[in-house]
Amino acid sequence: MEQVVLITGGSxxxxxxxxRILAADGCRVYEMSRGExxxxxxxxxxGDVTSEQDVKRAVDDVIKKExxxxxxxxxxxxxxxxxxxxxxxxxxxxxxxxxxxxxARMCRAVLLHMRKNGRGRILNLSSVAAxxxxxxxxxxSASKAAVNAYSLALANxxxxxxxxxxxxxxxxxxxxxxxxxxxxxxxxxxxxxRIGRSVAKMERDERDGMEPAAAGRIIARIARRRKVKPLYAxxxxxxAIALLARLLPARLLNWxxxxxxxx
Length: 263
Prior knowledge:
α1 links the parallel β1 and β2 (28-33). The protein is built from ten helices and nine strands. With 263 residues, it is of the alpha/beta class.
């Protein structure tokens, strides 16, 4: 049976790659984003994950047409950077509203239908920054750590109803995410130029990072597995980083991160 997939932020980057792969594999793909259109291999629904009305309308639209949603992929997100001290709280709220609460809104909207059907898969896009928080990207890291915590808790809440939940943690990916990051340089002089150096290094790593198509293939496979683990890191080096984050003393781990991204 063809699987019905709803993916947020599927118009570009990783989301677009996942949507293309799942559509090519025979899934019926619905993509929700703020853009006006999408490729012909999917059905585009214009909407914003920060809007309760948009989220409900998108889910209701898919249910009306298909009768079910087999897979929800929460991919919508963006990044901000800057010193935590100088980050405007409105920017921080927007970061959490899109990356974390937007995901939670989507989950709430589909869970009723998945529970009634006795099956479903929810895959939430997180980041290695959830396990290894990045200096001068504190609020982005916090939003992704929240995604992990929520996913783990939700997985146990809905396990008896045939619904499985996992979070996938990519690392550096070559996408438009880098250019779209909202950068705040306020306080860079007070911080000795460390804000600019840290963000510049992170963006170099992203530009040299994994191709979105490669990441998309991995995420698409995870989305369709019969059983999933609660957390995944993409690529062997990021798997090693995630493992070190669990094994190393927090003091040593944070010192290593300081040497890489905060000096």
